Every structure is written in structure tokens, then in C-alpha cells.
């Protein structure tokens, strides 16, 4: 995979994990419950919406399942 492709993959994962985290915090359900919904909604969420969610969640580094959330630049934090 090219570096560009890897970065795009990380950004896609970022979108889905932030949506999962947001729904988990806002709706009070387990992240696993909404995993498939977040996967379906991820392509529809605008970059602006994802930025708002990231700000609202105070820029989390890990999702509720302890998976790293890629940063806006596509980088990934090291595992805890």
C-alpha cells in the first residue's frame, strides 16, 4: 500500500471510531452495539462534522474498545 493509501485508510478509520465514541458517549450504549451503524454512517459524515465530534470529545486518542483513533494528520498514537 502506498503512503497516500495508508493515510486515507487511517482517516477512514478515524471517522468511524470517532462516530462510535460519540454515539457511545451521547446515547449511553456500548460501542459494539453501534459499530455497524458507525460503519454505515462514516462515508456520509462531512469532515466538518468529524472535526466537531473530535472537538466535542476532547480529541480522544483511543476509542471505547481501546483501539487507537488516528489523528487528523493520519498518524496513529502508540498503543497504551
**Cα-to-Cα separation, first versus last residue:** 26 Å
Task: Could you tell me the CATH topology label.
Answer: Arc Repressor Mutant, subunit A
Main beta-sheet annotation: none
Q: What would CATH call the homologous superfamily?
A: Winged helix-like DNA-binding domain superfamily/Winged helix DNA-binding domain
The CATH class turns out to be: Mainly Alpha
Beta percentage is: under 5%
Q: Give helix and strand order, one letter per element, not per position.
A: HHH
In helices, the fraction of residues equals: 40-55%
Average per-residue pLDDT, rounded, comes to 87
CATH architecture assignment name: Orthogonal Bundle
Number of strands: 0
Number of folding domains? 1
Radius of gyration: 12 Å
Shape: globular
Structural class: mainly alpha
Number of helices: 3
Low-confidence stretches: none
Task: Give a verbal description of the structure.
There is one protein chain. The protein is an all-alpha fold. Helices cover 52% and strands 0% of the residues. The chain contains three helices and no strands. The chain has helices spanning 3-27, 35-41, 47-56.
How is the topology of this model organized?
Layout: H1 3-27, H2 35-41, H3 47-56
Helix pairs in contact: 1-2, 1-3
Q: Any key phrases for this structure?
A:
80 residues; mainly alpha; Arc Repressor Mutant, subunit A
Please summarize what this structure is:
With 80 residues, this protein is an all-alpha fold. The protein has three helices and no strands.
